[in-house]
Amino acid sequence: MIxxxxxxxxxxxxxxxxxxxxxxxxxxxxxMTGAIEQRLHRDARIAGVVAWCLAVLPCVLxxxxxxxxxNDCSPWADxxxxxxxLYLAVGHRSLREHAMAVVLPLRAGDLDAARAAVARMVSxxxxxxxxxxxxSATTESVLENGADAVFGxxxxxxLLGAPGVVLNRLANTLDAMWGYRTPRYERFxxxxxxxxxxxxxxxxxxxxxxxxxxxxxxxxxxxxxxxxPQWDSPNAGPVMAAGAGALEVRLGGPAPYHGTxxxxxxxxxxxxxxxxxxADALRLVRRGVLLWLLxxxxxxxxxxxxx
Length: 307
Description:
Elements: H1 2-17, H2 25-40, H3 45-73, H4 75-89, H5 92-108, H6 111-118, H7 131-178, H8 190-199, H9 201-214, H10 217-227, H11 236-247, E1 249-252, E2 255-257, E3 260-262, E4 266-267, E5 271-272, H12 275-306
Parallel strand pairs: 1-5
Antiparallel strand pairs: 1-4, 2-3
Helix pairs in contact: 1-4, 1-12, 2-3, 3-4, 3-7, 4-7, 5-6, 5-7, 5-12, 6-7, 7-8, 7-9, 7-11, 7-12, 9-10, 9-11, 9-12, 10-11
């Protein structure tokens, strides 16, 4: 029950406060990993493994030590500490704020501002995207980051508490920094990409199931089954295919990266993406969060009654 309450408290803090504007631990983590990369970068997988371990494991061990020490004093002190850690790691409100920064200019007809806003959410080139492509890119980002920044954090928090959510968040951050198939990171970033895939495999499947259950279930399951295997990522594929199907919207398809249009598999079916699609995706993630919190509370209550 304490874990469920800490989870609820962490999500409430996120809803009330949002992402810290001045001092965020991930800023310091980014600087540290930059220094580690500068010293250890080699065109070799083992170098990436060593760098990943040096960046992530000390942070996880420190959080685990603090959590254990507080729990020895009082489980409620540990719960408060864990709630703050979850708040710092989860990105529900931040996801909504970034998406709404696209929605508002789109509704106002300011395509240039919408392109600039979506550029802060995705890695593709956005300067030449039309309204539909901007809406599609934003919707994809909401669905995928719902899994990475929200449901993944909740899953690992429920499983391992504060150390689990830190492990997941830092692994996800390193994947975003090093997990690219470029000459510099093809080998060095291999570990970051694969570890993030492993850690988020189960949360991604649960996220896809959540989207399917809260949206157009049959369409979502059909898209998940038929479209997800076509994507390279074992996590993004199920999440975005099920999410697009749940919303009954067509996503995916060609997108510009580094000056070249890349063919990508289709996602979902039905209507063309527009500004309302983004709002629907945000609503789907929000309902999923409420469902997960409810399930956590019911599991905790069942455990208390059984005890």
